[in-house]
Design brief:
Two copies of one chain form a homodimer. Chain A is of the alpha/beta class. In chain A, about 45% of the residues lie in helices and about 15% in strands. In chain A, the strands form two sheets. In chain A, strands 1-2-3-4-5-8-9-10 form an eight-stranded parallel β-barrel, surrounded by seven helices. In chain A, strand 4, helix 6 and strand 5 form a beta-alpha-beta unit. The two termini of chain A are about 25 Å apart.
Chain lengths: ~280, ~280
């Protein structure tokens, strides 16, 4: 049950038997040299990664900054279209962390859901509920709200104590109650803070999915991430890995290497999720 | 003195004798009908507005969502280039409210300063100081950080009391002290909250410029905005108006109407700034 977005995510977990989210942070400076002669090197890179890993993941996450910094919007569109046409059960997340007021937020919702046709978008809550509403109104699309991020500086604001609880707990409560009328909210919580993951899961209960970056390059602890973040069904997580998977090899075997890392991560997650 | 960005802004205030910032929120659905036959209607619209108003403003602000929602990045680039070539003293603000961690923030800094060549960019502080640092490192560029926004939902997070002071005061203090080593920070504070403007000006002192949206369509009170927000030199503000200026007329006299509204706003601001 629940909204189309929750249903689609349940379906993706079930079909893939995976809580892995592969992050297509396809930095043009890091993709294999031999691809760079192509007219659309990032799309060619993504296509190979997608074909190698799509059956082993619940979602792909596309970090828009790696595309917009080099005027590669068209390759972002083509990548999402390729996933939709070939792997329609996999959730596509546009990681753009948008946040703005009323009529501007509506334009960003168009960017996310009409231009790029993502299934879900990441959002920044600093501007409050009315800034999120234009996204939340798309009841079949996911709104994935930053709660406790994976970087060291997250503490500057998110850990401040407001009325006897930390700001990220306030955000978790607002998101899971006041803002979730359409049952399409998820939260971003960094794997680098497993204690906080546990606390937030207790606060929001079973129904809110978490997008969890910070595994791998950022040093998050997988065992505690899974144990503390999963819901009582043993799901509830999209655990995102980018560099550790897509740049596992810089040679012509890059896609095969990515597949190997994806399966390894999937199996580790499933091992801890059953315990 | 101060950084190149503060110097450039002082220069812009001085040359134009104006604290008006015209917001080029050039919604394709709202520009005059007769322009829509053009190949680049938004650029043509902007060009006319810019030529009519550039001598009367300290800055132009471009809300990227109105461009990215309709794949009009090229017209955004052309608009900024046009301002730089013809009115080099006017500050160009990319209003994109970016906020992300380490290597992604670096990509967004490239988007802002290398791709679009803006003089300043708006940023969201929820992810903390390390997420802002890649922007702050561009010491000649302005980092304009959301502090107290103009929308009703701003209260959801920004007004929470953290250690006996509101969250937006925490942000103002962090921004004006810890984060401002390169003297290139400004703050966004909505005109709809003149009491908060006064409080923040007292906290940060004279040196931090404020970008103030919320005049006009959003109902901000100009007299109290200017009196409460100005610094002791009678400057310190970029007061932004978008719809009230650029859509003042929907006929062929749209640029002339925009000029008239700009001059009216400039003179009102200057009247209150001297009192």
């Amino acid at each position: 049950m629940g909204s189309n977005f929750y249903y689609k995510l349940e379906n993706a977990w079930s079909i893939s038997n995976s809580m892995v989210c592969v992050g297509l942070d396809s930095d043009i400076n890091k993709i294999p040299e031999f691809l760079k002669a192509s007219e659309d090197p990032i799309f060619q890179f993504n296509k190979s990664i997608i074909d190698a890993t799509a059956k082993e993941v619940c979602s792909f996450k596309l970090q828009i900054a790696f595309y917009s910094s080099i005027s590669a919007e068209q390759q972002l569109i083509e990548t999402i279209q390729y996933i939709k046409e070939n792997y329609p059960d996999v959730i596509v997340i546009l990681d753009s962390k948008r946040g703005d007021i009323g009529n501007t937020a509506e334009q960003y919702a168009l960017e996310s859901f009409t231009r790029y046709k993502a299934d879900a978008v990441t959002l920044n809550p600093y501007l409050g509920g009315d800034s999120l509403q234009p996204f939340l109104n798309y009841s079949d699309k996911g709104s994935i709200i930053l709660c406790r991020t994976s970087n060291p500086g997250a503490k500057d604001l998110q850990d401040l104590i407001c009325d006897e609880e930390k700001l990220y707990i306030k955000v978790a409560k607002l998101a899971s109650t006041q803002w979730n009328a359409n049952k399409n909210i998820s939260l971003v919580i960094g794997a680098t803070y497993p204690k906080e993951l546990k606390e937030i899961r207790q606060v929001v209960g079973d129904n809110i999915p978490f997008l969890v970056p910070g595994i791998g390059a950022q040093g998050g602890d997988l065992e505690n991430t899974v144990k503390n973040g999963k819901n009582s069904n043993g799901t509830g997580l999209m655990i995102s890995s980018s560099r550790g998977i897509i740049f596992a090899s810089s040679g012509s075997d890059f896609a095969e290497a990515a597949k190997k890392e994806t399966i390894k991560l999937k199996e580790e997650i499933n091992y801890y999720a059953c315990r």
